[in-house]
Amino acid sequence: MRAATAGGTRSRKQRTTPSRITAVTVAGVVLGLVLGGCGTRPASVTDAAGGAKYILSDSTEEPTQEIDNFNWAMYAEPFSLDYAYAFDYPDNTVLSNVCESLFRWNADLSTSPGLATGVENPDPLTWIYTIRQGVKFHDGTEMTADDVVTSLSRHIDPEVGSFWASSYQNVESIEKTGDYEVTVTTTRPDYVFNTSLVGAPGVVESAKTLEEAGKDYGNSEAGVNCTGPFQFDQWEAGESITLKRFDDYWDPELKAKSKQVTFTMLPDATSRINAFQTGEIDGGFAIPSNAIDILKANKDAGSLYFGNDTSVQSMVFTNLAGTFQDVRVRKALMMAINRDALIKAAEQGYAKNTDALTTRNVWKDVPATTADEAFDGLLSTPYDLEEAKKLVKEAGAEGSKFVFATASLNAAFDITARAIASAAKEIGLEPEIQTMSNDKYTTLFSDPEARKNVDLLVTSWYLSSTEPLEMYSVLRTGDFSNYGGWSNAEFDDLVNSAYSVQDPEARGKLTGQAAKLASEDVVWGPLYETVTSMWLGKNITGADPSINYMYYPWAAQIGGR
Fold first, then answer.
1. Residues whose CB is less than 8 angstroms from the CB of residue 541 and which lie 6 or more positions away in sequence, other chains included
2. Three-state SS across 125-143?
3. Angle at 97 between CA 191 and CA 223, to 5 degrees
4. Domain Solute-binding protein family spans what residues (predicted)?
5. Which whole-number Å values give the CA distances from 479 to 4, 321, 362, 418, 500, in the listed order?
6. E strand or H helix that includes residue 422
7. Beta-carbon contacts of residue 301 (< 8 Å; ≥ 6 apart)
């Protein structure tokens, strides 16, 4: 349930003071495409077979040799490598190669054993984990059940303030019940808890290191001491993070094929793309959509891949007491945006329209008929400018002002922000754009103070499991990520009840009912689904193009061609 802008969000780091502008000028092409829907597709855009703009790949070519190093582009610097605060794309892109969880999230979004070889659920309140033996931390010490207990327990420690505490909302105790056995007891049945352990909630760190590092754990000086195929080496603030291969890694199938990986911070999208083409940077995820066709054409420099994603680009109404307190105004803003045209203008067609806050692939464990029912029950807000104006007038909101926070993460994000602001003005609202640095923008998703005077923002929100309830759980009353403070007792009851249901179909039905309520109230406004994009330069190969890179040691797969 992690936030992100069109490339990430959710850190707490603050560096600059946001600037404010009150007027929005939108290029004619954006107005034509987003508001009128009458523009034409850029000449460089071509459709793949069957009309699709992209074809998903399961994997890439197997590497044929080891390499000394490869350089990977990052659009922003991680806030922390402490798994308790790793809540965003940059953090997890690095951390997934250094620290591991009890279970693995595979490229096809299935789950397999990780640091736990198995789990038993003998009764509705008990989860027993068998811990893998013979696993070493990067300092050479062996992982034990004590390390697992200490690592998991941080999420229920209020002094830590874990961003993932909601995953442990029903956990009563975490205990060592054998040399390589850990038992988690819950206060009530919770059949979502176990699925969360493929991500940050299931990460295991050395208990000794956690105690020694204290509050410095995960920062640029202390680093981390985990079990992954790479180990922390160096963090040059604002510049790069270097990882080195851990030669005593437990899994021979994922022993790193590169001796080192360097993550280079390149917040400017143009600089990243130029670096891809010149070979200065070997690869990267989240390729700016306006550069995709350029990179596709430059076959001599490398290859572009698309894979599974669980992300939905959405508007988040962060203040339901101001201009957006009336659901008619929220619905009107959705109806004022031509989303099909937005996808063409902002994403160059590399996205899909949706009325849902989840992608269909996270419903993979639910019968298709149940998923169909959930999606069919959602509110549809087709482009209708006149109806949108009417709704704003009925709500008495004409001329109402609101603060819209944004950042220049890439061209797609800029176009989306301008389109939303233009749509708002077209229906009689008055947006005040608050432009932030990339790093500053990320604080909006973890710091309530940073959101204090913000009414609207945009996020690319990804799920870190194939459990759709993960999305809707964050919209419950008082949840950490319920940014607008929305409260609906019926919704809360449905979500809380669903947690206690073991059968995926029955749980899916309850989730679908909750999704319908959130949709009707337009708590968040879904714009479109995105796709995972990955660039590999001509000298490297091996990684899978899938959103699982958030929690899977993808860098270990990369070697030479």
1. 60, 61, 62, 63, 558, 559, 560, 561
2. CEEEEEECCCCECCCCCEC
3. 105
4. 112-478
5. 17, 17, 21, 30, 18
6. helix 411-426
7. 276, 277, 278, 279, 295, 537, 538
How do beta strands 401-407 and 430-436 pair?
parallel
**pLDDT tens track, the chain, 561 positions:** 444 443 333 333 322 222 222 222 233 333 333 333 333 222 233 344 445 678 899 999 999 999 999 999 998 899 899 999 998 889 999 999 999 999 999 999 999 999 999 999 999 999 999 999 999 999 999 999 999 999 999 999 999 999 999 899 999 999 999 999 999 999 999 999 999 999 999 999 999 999 999 999 999 999 999 999 999 999 999 999 999 999 999 999 999 999 999 999 998 888 999 999 999 999 999 998 889 999 999 999 999 999 999 999 999 999 999 999 999 999 999 999 999 999 999 999 999 999 999 999 999 999 999 999 999 999 999 999 999 999 999 999 999 999 999 987 778 888 999 999 999 999 999 999 999 887 788 888 888 999 999 999 999 999 989 999 999 999 999 998 999 999 999 999 999 999 999 999 999 999 999 999 999 999 999 999 999 999 999 999 999 999 999 999 999 999 999
What is the C-alpha to C-alpha distance for residues 83 and 203, in angstroms, rounded to an integer?
7
pTM (2 d.p.): 0.84
Look up residue 69 and give its amino acid. Answer: N
Whole-angstrom distance, CA of residue 432 vs CA of residue 133: 57
